[in-house]
Specification:
The complex is a heterodimer.
Chain A lengths: L9 E10 L2 E11 L4 E5 L6 H8 L7 E6 L2 E2 L7 H7 E4 L11 H11 L5 H14 L15 H14 L4 E5 L7 H16 L3 E5 L3 H7 L2 E6 L2 E6 L1 H6 L4 H14 L1
Parallel strand pairs in A: 3-8, 3-9, 6-7, 7-8
Antiparallel strand pairs in A: 1-2, 1-4, 4-5, 9-10
Chain B lengths: L7 H45 L9 H23 L2 H14 L7 H26 L3 H9 L4 H31 L11 H12 L3 H30 L26 H15 L1
Classes of the chains: A alpha/beta, B mainly alpha.
Chain lengths: ~250, ~280
């Protein structure tokens, strides 16, 4: 699915993030090309979520550069809001706007940020809500629907902005087990549609099935980065092997 | 003139007859002072509360950081001074002070609006700050993640939710202002309490007059608290929602085929079945 275009959509160079004296990310380098589906795996506290949050500047990186289509977004002159509008994010805790209905959740960003007309925003919102199967619930408030449904709405909200890249921060970790499937199904559909995605996840089977590349993070560095076949079947780094062995063991 | 030897109800009906108009005029001024003062006070409170919660980021330019710091110090001084001194004394200092020291001649009523507004503003800014702080950080992050500016985030996401949370506080302030506007009699604003004292002085009937005043105050505060309760329920919206469209069970489009299959797998299976049937 990789384009011939050689400019990465997102390129992270020498990214460093410290929280006080704690070094959470140490010299991270990686590239995402259009059409890539990158799954970031690793144990808790390895810096996966922080990396994702640094990419759309919810956390301010301590050092390093982030390039979006070749343009450095760490540059003060680059508009952070314009950049964020092109990079969608789906959160572990859904974070639907509690004061709005399902439909309004998917419309507000389009109207306020993309300056779309109300009619256009509603049509786009309906298109994506239908895609995730939440079109019947447009009048519901977030507290009236289940976790899986909330996450599907959150995905539709991100899609309605028609982003170039969609970031997922452990999208199924806060869900009851029986709801994980419906969210993964929706994400699988996005993969088939060729959307560029960076997914932080603990769903190993999902990562193995959908990703074009898998990034294994350990203690703030990228320990190994390769195709899912190699990472899951024949990892070179002993730490990857150890993590996967432990993980597969826990799954049984 | 009536004397104290007359019956209680006789005195009350006499007072309503001779002073009814004055009571109504006084009550009108009281409610006007309280409503306008609370409204302006809320606006002040919102502005101060919002400025106090603007995040300072390492990315920001130095001028923005410094000016924000200075504005914040001024605001904290304002809050501490007006929360920390009695309104009756603020009234005297502002009304007579502005006349004597600054040569500004405002009417007592105008001074009353100013005093109640800035007093309420000082209390409300703390409530607003608390209201904003109480909103989950995830709400702000989600708004930022779709590209909203700080002010868009505040006005369309955080603010409406904070407003709902502090609505009981606004109600409290309104009721307090209805009652506490009585201290403005010190600068001779002819609100309800001032009117009452005037009537007592004119007709030498003390406690029945105050009792009538009591009933008027109570009916005003009670009406306001009921109205606010009704408004709270209105904001909360209906408890239930209606499903719409042709897909009433909310099945995702891709799940309308058997679950657990990707499109390719589904097509392959479908084709296999077709060829097996031939």
């Amino acid at each position: 699915m990789r384009n011939d275009n050689k400019t990465p959509v997102i390129e992270v160079r020498h990214l460093v993030k410290n929280f006080g004296k704690v070094e959470v990310l140490m010299d991270i380098d990686f590239k995402t090309y259009p059409g890539d589906v990158i799954c970031v795996i690793g144990s808790s506290g390895s810096g996966k979520s922080t990396l994702l949050r640094c990419i759309n500047l919810l956390e301010t990186p301590t050092g390093g550069d982030i390039l979006f289509n070749g343009k450095n977004i760490m540059d003060r002159k680059t508009s952070v809001t314009d950049y964020r509008a092109k990079v969608g994010m789906v959160f572990q805790q859904f974070n639907l706007f509690n004061n709005m209905t399902v439909l309004q959740n998917c419309m507000t960003g389009q109207i306020k940020v993309l300056k779309r007309s109300k009619k256009e925003a509603e049509e786009t919102a309906m298109k994506y809500l239908t895609q995730v199967g939440m079109d019947p619930y447009i009048n519901a408030k977030p507290h009236q629907i289940s976790g899986g449904q909330k996450q599907r709405v959150a995905i539709a909200r991100a899609l309605a902005m028609e982003p170039e890249v969609l970031l997922f921060d452990e999208p199924t970790s806060a869900l009851d087990p029986e709801m994980v499937g419906e969210v993964l199904e929706v994400m699988r559909e996005l993969v088939e549609n060729g959307l560029t995605m960076i997914i932080v996840t603990h769903e190993m089977a999902f990562a193995r099935d959908v990703s074009t590349r898998v990034v294994f993070m350990d203690k703030g560095v990228i320990a190994e980065e390769d195709t899912p076949e190699i990472i899951f079947n024949n990892p070179t780094n002993p730490r990857t092997r150890e993590f996967l062995a432990r993980f597969m063991h826990d799954q049984d | 003139m009536l004397t104290a030897s007359k019956g209680f109800w006789e005195m009350v009906s006499y007072l309503i007859k001779v002073g009814g108009k004055d009571f109504i005029l006084g009550a009108e001024k009281t409610i006007l002072l309280a409503v306008v003062g609370t409204a302006i006070g809320c606006i002040i409170g919102f502005l101060v509360g919002i400025v106090q919660t603007i995040p300072i980021q390492p990315r920001d330019v130095l001028i923005k950081k410094i000016s924000l710091k200075i504005v914040r110090i001024i605001m904290s001084v304002y809050i501490e001074v007006f929360r920390g001194t009695p309104m009756i004394i603020q009234a005297v200092v502002i009304y007579y002070g502005s006349q004597e020291a600054l040569g500004i001649n405002m009417t007592a009523m105008f001074a009353g609006f100013v005093i109640i507004s800035i007093n309420t503003g000082a209390y409300m800014s703390e409530s607003v700050r608390g209201g904003i702080d109480s909103i989950d950080r995830g709400q702000t992050e989600a708004a930022k993640a779709i590209g909203m500016t700080h002010f868009q985030t505040m006005f369309s996401i955080v603010f409406p939710q904070a407003l709902r949370n502090i609505l009981p506080q606004i109600g409290n302030n309104l009721i307090i202002n209805i009652k506490d506007s009585s201290v403005l009699m010190i600068i001779s604003v002819d609100e309800l309490f001032y009117t009452t004292r005037t009537l007592v002085g004119a007709y030498y009937i003390t406690y029945p007059t105050y009792l009538i005043t009591c009933v008027i105050y109570l009916s005003m505060t009670f009406t306001c608290s009921r109205l606010l309760r009704w408004y709270e329920r209105k904001i909360d919206g209906p408890d239930s929602y209606n499903l719409t469209g042709t897909n009433p069970k909310g099945i995702p489009v891709q799940n309308r085929r058997p679950t657990g299959l990707t499109m390719q797998m589904f097509n392959r299976k479908y084709n296999d079945q077709r060829s097996a049937m031939r």
